[in-house]
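Would you kindly consider the sequence and fold I have copied below?
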Amino acid sequence: MAQEKIYKSNALIEASYTLSVAEQRIILACIAQVDRGSPITDEVLYSIPVASIVKATGSDSKSIYKELLEASRKLRQRGVSIELEPNGGGRKAKTLEASWVQSIVYNEREGAISLRFNKDMLPFLTELKEQFTRYDLSDVARMTSLYGIRLFEMLVQYASIGCREIALADLRKWLRLDDKYPLMADLRRYVIAPAVSQLNEHSPLRVRYELKRHCRKITHLNFIIAHKRLPAAEAEPAAEKPPQRIALSNYELSRLAHKGESLSDALTRLNAYIK
């Protein structure tokens, strides 16, 4: 599992849903099997030996078997809300409400889980040409925080930029927190701090964050993102110095821009972060 790749549409990265750690492990292990370059149908059955998840996570085998059994029973009912329309342009958002899978089987005798993805989910997992995020399954395999896995996905696509600013309202929506942790202190204690800690401990990223205020109210989190340095024996050849200014398409800028901010102002602000 260590070298398996996860490919997700950015729309799915920023979708609104909640999955337990065990449920995410099942979904991600199956996504890693998707052939992103070939058309697939909802008839394709993906099967994962539970032993491979145990090995990848380094978890106690007895507990994880039980967790995955319970997760497989619940996963059929899990839903996801995906915004289909891009930001800007004055258009109203179009939202897809779908289930992750259409069927799932837990084979206790063989110690394996098999599932078929919902047909509506396939465009966000396969034949992706642009606006998608890729990472190694091993980057999140040892995480035990459901928020840590989600935050990693939100930040890894911006690692080359070095920062990402996320509105609190968006973060709450994407993580489907609803009325949980209404106080900022509780949100930081139970969601943000554990997630950042997990990223710094288990992922290839090193992350810290700053609070952004408007009229004394905290409205945004600015995450500063860097790749961890590899040990000398594993270090990669020195890369060329990054350009002084970032290059983004108008669509990418529209997704990064604050409400009411022009694309040129958004680009100026992002370049200021780089500096």
Confidence is low (pLDDT under 50) at residues 231-236. The chain has two domains: 1-138, 143-234. The longest strand covers residues 217-227.
